[in-house]
Amino acid sequence: MAVRGRPVRGGPVRLVVRTFSELCLTVGTLIVLFVAYVMFWTGVKAAEASDGQIDRLQDTWARSPLAAPAPGPEAETAPRAPGAYEPGRPFAVMYVPRLGRDWDWPVLEGTGTKTLQKGLGHYAGTARLGETGNFSVAGHRRTYGDPFKDFPRLRPGDAVVLTDGATWFTYRIVNKPYRTVPGDIGVIDDVPRKAGFDGPGRYLTLTTCEPEWGSSHRLIVWAHLDATQPVADGRPRALSG
């Protein structure tokens, strides 16, 4: 006659505990993978995308040179083609020495999600590069290459240099990063009064998210056009240090 085995004590409880433990392990693994994706993989993809945008710009500039305006901060920029910048397409490269010797990012038209995954985004409707008004640009603080990760380090007097392939435009920052809410659209007005500007000029606004891993607020810096020079004359002094 077969011997009946002893019943396993706490069988259902053990099953619940084991299932819960496996669930926690699975969720933990997914969280780790998601963090790795956000912190690493989006950066890899952004680097590839931004490099591709810069390569596209350089090809365009080589095939269709843009005539440089007369030197000086009052010079107007001749458009490469009639009309506004093309949505989602690059038209300039930005350099900010304070953020690193190798810091360079393409500037694309628009601030949509897909656009900001490839580089910095120009607020549609604000001034064109180098023209009278407020040339306004947004960028991610974190993820997609972290272009503005060190935004809080910016200080008055820092240079923000851009090129459209024919001209270098050097802007000078006038304030420490200013914290505000997303709805404060006055920061990109033609004359941003909170920057202390009191009349028309050639201005630049940079915006990013605050806090570092959130988006409840925005950080803002403003700048004014300080100098221009043709690309053919070499790199501007602000980039030669």
TrEMBL record:
Top-level taxon in the UniProt lineage: Bacteria
Pfam families in UniProt: Sortase
UniProt name for this protein: Class E sortase
Keyword tags: Hydrolase, Membrane, Transmembrane, Transmembrane helix
Region Disordered: start-end pairs: 65-84
SUPFAM superfamilies to which the protein is assigned, alphabetical: Sortase (SSF63817)
Lineage, broadest ranks: Bacteria, Bacillati, Actinomycetota, Actinomycetes, Kitasatosporales
GO MF annotation list: hydrolase activity
Active site per UniProt: 140, 209
NCBIfam families assigned to the protein according to its UniProt record, in alphabetical order: class_E_sortase, sortase_fam
Transmembrane segments: 20-41
Gene3D superfamilies: Sortase (2.40.260.10)
